[in-house]
Write a structure and sequence with these properties.
Blueprint lengths: L11 H19 L11 E6 L5 H12 L3 E5 L1 H4 L7 H11 L2 E5 L3 H10 L4 E3 L7 H15 L6 E5 L4 H13 L2 E5 L8 H14 L3 E4 L2 H5 L4 E4 L11 H7 L7 H4 L7 E4 L11 H4 L6 H19 L2
Parallel strand pairs: 1-2, 1-3, 3-4, 5-6, 5-8, 6-7, 8-9
Helix pairs in contact: 1-6, 1-13, 2-13, 4-5, 6-7, 6-13, 7-8
The structure holds phosphoric acid mono(formamide)ester and norvaline.
Phosphoric acid mono(formamide)ester binds next to helix 2.
């Protein structure tokens, strides 16, 4: 059985297969609609955290493919509190054909996958956001035409989204540059894994505390919130550290003139990105948001294959 927990688990060929499928499903949908490939199938969606994109794009993905999505709010399931995560997995898998979970602790999504008898998709954990990653590489492909050899620069906090981006980039042969303050750089285990993937694909990785060095020559400039869900207590302290990494016109000038700007959203305008950049001609943030739906159709079909 296939689960979808982190892009690090996929072979480059599998990731490419999912991207190709997403392109095909998006083209089909734009031309009038998708065939009901998931007719009669139900997706159970467990949420421990809020969501706009993940919730609605999964719901619409199932609807377009003839299936149904069931939203389970944080209060309903209370993963690991009302009953054990293992029991939730074993019960829910008796009712639905596939499970998506947005959790705080990545170990919870691993535990769900361990016990579930149906595929489990990670809809964001503290460690990774692989659905976002697929949508992002789809977006880069659409705007740049190719992935291999392109440079993706990520500025700000090394978080779940960063992990999915570095795993995907190094699987797909893209160069990855990080500009992050000391103390907020990549986890050593994440870097070690990515270096392994890069050695196989020919990607180059560079890590810097200098945002200008990181962004130099980038085809893609990516940022995300300085304070992820679950880190709210650190927000004030982080606001003092991260301003040099804000994606604003002055910093963006160091990237290639044709660079695209990406953000997984929700954006904290005026913090990690300015309005001028988010709403400017280089921004593709709403294409990214739309592509969540197309990417997840491909992921759903791939795990249910
Ligand atoms: N990018 C993303 O996952 O958005 P939501 O938190 O709204 O789902
Ligand atoms: N890094 C952010 C992503 C939100 C989609 C978070 O975890 O809150």
């Amino acid at each position: 059985m296939r689960h979808f927990l982190t892009l690090a688990d996929l072979t480059p060929a599998e990731l490419q297969e999912i991207l190709d499928l997403a392109v095909q499903l998006k083209t089909e949908w734009k031309a009038g609609g998708n065939p009901p490939l998931l007719g009669g199938k139900v997706l159970g969606m467990i949420f421990q955290k809020p969501s706009l994109r993940t919730r609605v794009s999964f719901d619409m993905a199932m609807l377009h493919l003839g299936g149904h999505a069931l939203y389970l709010s944080p209060n309903e399931i209370q993963l690991g509190k009302r009953e054990s995560t293992a029991d939730v997995a074993r019960v829910l898998a008796r009712y639905v054909h596939v499970i998506m979970a947005r959790v705080f602790d990545h170990a919870d999504v691993v535990e769900l996958a361990k016990w579930s008898t149906v595929p489990v998709i990670n809809g964001l954990s503290d460690y990774s956001h692989p659905c976002q990653g697929v949508a992002d590489f789809l977006t880069i492909l659409e705007h740049k035409g190719t992935l291999k050899g392109r440079k993706l620069a990520y500025l700000g906090d090394s978080n779940n989204v960063t992990h999915s981006l570095i795993f995907g980039a190094t699987k797909l042969g893209m160069d990855f540059a990080l500009g992050a303050p000391a103390g907020y750089s990549l986890r050593p285990d994440v870097l070690a894994l990515a270096e392994q993937f890069a050695a196989e694909s020919g990607s180059r990785i560079s890590i810097s505390t200098d945002p200008r060095a990181a962004i130099q020559g980038a085809d893609v400039v990516y940022t995300d919130t300085w304070t992820s869900m679950g880190q709210e207590a650190e927000a004030e302290e982080r606001r003092k550290i991260f301003p040099p990494y804000q994606v604003n016109p002055a910093l963006l000038a160091y990237a290639r003139p044709d660079a695209i700007v990406m953000h997984c959203l929700p954006a904290h305008r005026g913090d990690e990105i300015t309005d001028e950049v988010a709403d400017g001609p280089q921004s593709v943030i709403f294409d990214q948001a739309e592509n969540r739906m197309h990417a997840q159709k491909a992921i759903l079909l791939w795990v249910l294959e």
